[in-house]
Amino acid sequence: QVQLVESGGGLVQAGGSLRLSCAASGLPFSRYSMGWFRQAPGTEREFQATISKSGGSTYYADSVKGRFTISRDNAKNTVYLQMDSLKPDDTAVYYCAVQTKVLGYYTPRSYDYWGQGTQVTVSS
User: Fold this and answer.
1) What pLDDT, on a 0 to 100 scale, did the predictor assign at position 14?
2) CA 113 – CA 108 distance, rounded (Å)
3) Is 49 in contact with 68 (CB distance < 8 Å)?
4) How many helices and strands, by DSSP H and E, does the chain display?
5) SS3 14
6) 39-43 contacts, C-beta under 8 A, 24 or more apart
7) What DSSP state is assigned to residue 103?
8) Residue 63 has what DSSP assignment?
9) Residues 64/48, Cβ–Cβ less than 8 Å
10) Which residues, in sequence order, are bridge partners of residue 20?
């Protein structure tokens, strides 16, 4: 079955960096676009970034553009999210997901197979 396992979250001071990883198994990884979302308590799951199958195209939420970088290694079945210049507002659980539907890359409805999430906490 499909499994996504995120790692790399933690506690960091404002201005710091973290690199999240998402290891996928049980699917032909290179055939799917992948996305990162986040969810803070009491809020809806929010799009952060997406990357195409080959890695040639990427899109970001306005709030993270210029600070976050999504990448992938198809040989390792892994997608990454490099997060720089972190702010307290970036505090949330971060999820990776597989895009299986063409409903818009920014909506969770386009994605199936979610990881368990990794907590990112940014202190001020």
Assistant:
1) 98
2) 11
3) yes
4) 0, 11
5) coil
6) 39/92, 39/93, 39/95, 39/117, 40/91, 40/92, 40/93, 43/92
7) S
8) T
9) yes
10) 81
Question: Which residues are CB-contacts of 32 (< 8 A; sequence separation ≥ 6)?
Answer: 53, 98, 99, 100
Distance CA(100)–CA(122), nearest Å, equals 31
In which region does residue 105 sit, left (phi positive, over 0), alpha (psi from -120 to 50) or beta (all else)? alpha
Please state, rounded to an integer, the average pLDDT across all residues of the chain.
97
Q: How confident is the model at residue 106 (pLDDT cuts 50, 70, 90)?
A: very high
Q: Tens of pLDDT along 23-59?
A: 999 999 999 999 999 999 999 999 999 999 999 999 9
Q: What does the alpha-carbon distance between residue 58 and residue 65 come to, in Å, rounded to a whole number?
A: 11
Which of 40, 63, 59, 39 is closest to 49 using CA atoms? 59
Residue type, 59: Y
- Overall size of the chain counted in residues: 124
